[in-house]
Amino acid sequence: MIRLFSTPEGVVLERDGRFILPAADFSIDALFASDNPTARADAAFETGRPGAAPSSLRAPLHSQEVWAAGVTYLRSMKARMEESKDAGGGSFYDRVYVADRPELFFTATPHRVAASGTPVRIRRDSKWNVPEPELTLAINARGKIFGYTVGNDMSSRDIEGENPLYLPQAKVYDRSAALGPCLVITDALPAATTPIAIEIRRDGAAVFSGATSVGQIKRPLPSLAEWLFREDRFPFGAYLMTGTGVVPPDTFTLAVGDEIRITIEPVGTLVNTVAQ
Questions:
Q1: pLDDT score of 9 more than 70
Q2: Distances in whole angstroms, Cα of residue 91 to Cα of each of 80, 100, 168
Q3: What is the pLDDT of residues 19-31, one digit of tens each?
Q4: DSSP at 126
Q5: The whole model's pTM is what?
Q6: What angle, 0 to 180 degrees and rounded to 10, lies between the N-to-C axes of helices 74-83 and 89-98?
Q7: Chain region(s) in the chain for CATH 3.90.850.10
Q8: What is the dihedral of CA 104, 108, 110, 111, to 10 degrees?
Q9: What's the rounded Cα separation, in Å, for the pair 208 and 239?
């Protein structure tokens, strides 16, 4: 397992506490375009020169689109049905939860993605906003999962619930997604028992916390990747968020200045403050 950090100066690789600066021909795009990203990362680690732990981070992507899968947890299905009950959500979110075809939607281009330590945003025209902590798969140009990171898929629940056709506006806007703090490069998917935990802090105190596990995702992770690549091409690969199993109560909404902390080991903790 290698962890890749993206910094303003370039890529830093880490394994077993050793930080390596790879050669100039190693890049995030080259990694995602590679037929065997894990072997490419191993070779870059072995031939690189010693480096230091990064002091500032960028999101671990360059040309990669970010997509998301919805209604992959029972908790998510119930929340989506409740928020959209006046728009018929009781009839379509339960159906997609059990359907062969998953819900997949585009969520961010690279310039819209926040890094750990930088702000995410809530929309000015929304009154009900929540973060969504998600295991996020790294998929190469051939559709192979070769790693994962922590994702935050911000959601304007009032816009999303008003009408299902408003989903893009609820999900796709500047800094509506965050990835990081690093990309774990490995051929092994995280164990079913792997926790996905979130804490939201306001004025220094926790106002919401929750956790689920990877094993609560209903659909096999390779199946989600296969559906995404079924009729689409990603020359530099893609990230795929896999849905959320932790939803704050309906009485909760994010406020400017809140700190969102999402943890999935061995990736670490994705930390973002909320701006508008």
A1: yes
A2: 11, 16, 20
A3: 999 999 999 999 9
A4: -
A5: 0.93
A6: 160
A7: 65-275
A8: 170
A9: 27
Paired with 30 in beta bridges are none
Measured in whole angstroms, the distance separating CA 150 from the mean position of its chain's CA atoms is 5
Tokens of 173: 């806007």
Domain 65-275 of CATH type 3.90.850.10:
yes
User: Given this model, what pLDDT does residue 85 score?
Assistant: 57
Instruction: Answer whether 268's CB lies under 8 Å from 150's CB.
Output: yes
H or E stretch at 242: none
Helix runs in the chain, H state only: 28-33, 37-47, 74-83, 89-98, 157-162, 167-171, 221-229
Tokens of 269: 């903790």
C-alpha radius of gyration, the chain, whole number: 18
Residue where the block lists tokens 């939860």: 97
Q: Smallest Cα–Cα separation from 34: which of 138, 150, 149?
A: 138
Residue that the structure tokens 């690189």 belong to: 48
Parallel, antiparallel, or unpaired for β 113-114 and 177-185?
Answer: parallel
Place of tokens 């819209």: 112
Q: DSSP characters for 171-236?
A: H-STT-EEEEEEEEE-SSPPPTT-EEEEEEEETTEEEEEEEEEGGG-SS-HHHHHHHHHTT---TT
List residues bridging with 177 in a β-sheet: 113, 153
CA atoms within 13 A on the CB side of 46: 7
Is the CA virtual torsion 207, 213, 216, 221 positive or negative? Answer: positive
**248: which 2 tokens?**
């704050």
Instruction: Dump pLDDT digits (tens) for 200-214.
Output: 999 999 999 999 999
